[in-house]
């Protein structure tokens, strides 16, 4: 039996780091939303008791480092599953980009295998398992738009944000999330106004949403990687309504309301950046197929 499932990317409308916890993780407060840029996973049940990861992207690990592999292993161990699965990942989301590509693949694997193996687990149960794999996996299980707290695993659902275009641009560098957090100076940060962003979403106020985007990790990545700062400057210059780095970077996104301006920003960025995408916010939770 085979099953296809989408794994959409996410962007951070806000990302605030409150403090470092005794367990070594950082306490965060962030608003995330899924966008219509997605990997596609094909899950095929195997008689032999093994997990296979298949991908034509050389940056996608095909062993236990892969978060989709970890998702399958976790479900097998918790529920005594003796059969295997082949997980083929058609990688569309850029790797190591701050868009939760790996986390979304893990969430898609959890949801797909729940169906394939007829486990009957709820989304809440899958999200709880997801938190054991990675901080963003719980959010990716639900999709849509949410306030994430704790280390990212505590999810409070929000309505869809005001509709607009999202232009994403990723420079040809990778950014280490661990390094970014290590270099973060908690006492010198300009914090986003999470409350105002939540109000903007509930009020469906596009201008207020644009005025309140913010990411405390941006200052670290921009000062370390001038390529990221350049993309942000260019996106503003070309006419995006607001521009922000997603996650720990290096991907930068611009929010744009009008089609004509979106095309201008997209085409101008394509001149000096290979990985550029123009997508819509998904807003609500994403379905299995």
From TrEMBL:
GO MF terms, alphabetically ordered: 4-(cytidine 5'-diphospho)-2-C-methyl-D-erythritol kinase activity; ATP binding
Key words, A-Z: ATP-binding, Isoprene biosynthesis, Kinase, Nucleotide-binding, Transferase
Catalytic machinery residues: 10, 136
Enzyme class label: transferase
Catalytic activity from the UniProt record: 4-CDP-2-C-methyl-D-erythritol + ATP = 4-CDP-2-C-methyl-D-erythritol 2-phosphate + ADP + H(+)
Pathway(s) it belongs to: Isoprenoid biosynthesis; isopentenyl diphosphate biosynthesis via DXP pathway; isopentenyl diphosphate from 1-deoxy-D-xylulose 5-phosphate: step 3/6
Record-linked InterPro entries: GHMP_kinase_C_dom (IPR013750), GHMP_kinase_C_sf (IPR036554), GHMP_kinase_N_dom (IPR006204), IspE (IPR004424), Ribosomal_Su5_D2-typ_SF (IPR020568), Ribsml_uS5_D2-typ_fold_subgr (IPR014721)
Protein's GO biological process: isopentenyl diphosphate biosynthetic process, methylerythritol 4-phosphate pathway; terpenoid biosynthetic process
Pfam families reported in the protein's UniProt record: GHMP_kinases_C (PF08544), GHMP_kinases_N (PF00288)
Annotated ranges, domain GHMP kinase N-terminal: 66-144
GHMP kinase C-terminal domain segment(s): 197-273
SUPFAM superfamilies the UniProt entry points to: GHMP Kinase, C-terminal domain, Ribosomal protein S5 domain 2-like
Enzyme Commission number, as recorded: 2.7.1.148
Binding site for ATP: 94-104
Function: Catalyzes the phosphorylation of the position 2 hydroxy group of 4-diphosphocytidyl-2C-methyl-D-erythritol.
Stored PANTHER family: 4-DIPHOSPHOCYTIDYL-2-C-METHYL-D-ERYTHRITOL KINASE, CHLOROPLASTIC
Homology family: Belongs to the GHMP kinase family. IspE subfamily.
HAMAP family cross-referenced by the UniProt entry: IspE
Protein name per UniProt: 4-diphosphocytidyl-2-C-methyl-D-erythritol kinase
Organism listed in the record: Domibacillus antri
Name of the encoding gene: ispE
């Amino acid at each position: 039996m085979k099953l296809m499932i989408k794994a959409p990317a996410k962007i951070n409308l806000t990302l605030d780091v409150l403090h470092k916890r005794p367990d070594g993780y950082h306490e965060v407060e962030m608003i995330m939303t899924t966008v219509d840029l997605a990997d596609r996973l094909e899950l095929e049940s195997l008689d032999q008791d093994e997990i296979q990861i298949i991908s034509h992207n050389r940056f996608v690990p095909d062993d236990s480092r892969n978060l989709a592999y970890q998702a399958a292993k976790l479900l097998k161990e918790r529920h005594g599953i003796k059969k295997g699965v082949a997980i083929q990942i058609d990688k569309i989301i850029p790797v190591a980009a701050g868009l939760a590509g790996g986390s979304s693949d893990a969430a898609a694997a959890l949801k797909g295998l729940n169906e394939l193996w007829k486990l009957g687990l709820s989304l809440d149960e899958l999200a709880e398992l997801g938190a054991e794999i990675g901080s963003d996996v719980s959010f990716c299980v639900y999709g849509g738009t949410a306030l994430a707290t704790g280390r990212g695993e505590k999810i409070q659902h929000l309505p869809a944000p005001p509709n607009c275009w999202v232009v994403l641009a990723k420079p040809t560098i990778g950014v280490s999330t661990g390094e970014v957090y290590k270099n973060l100076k908690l006492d010198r940060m300009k914090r986003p106004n999470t409350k105002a962003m939540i109000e903007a979403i509930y009020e469906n106020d596009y201008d207020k949403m644009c005025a309140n985007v913010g990411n405390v990790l941006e200052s670290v990545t921009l000062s370390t990687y001038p390529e990221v700062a350049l993309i942000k400057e260019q996106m503003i210059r070309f006419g995006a309504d607001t521009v922000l780095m997603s996650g720990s970077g290096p991907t930068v996104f611009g929010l744009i309301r009008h089609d004509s301006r979106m095309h201008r920003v997209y085409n101008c960025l394509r001149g000096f950046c290979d990985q550029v995408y123009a997508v819509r916010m998904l807003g609500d939770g994403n379905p299995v197929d």
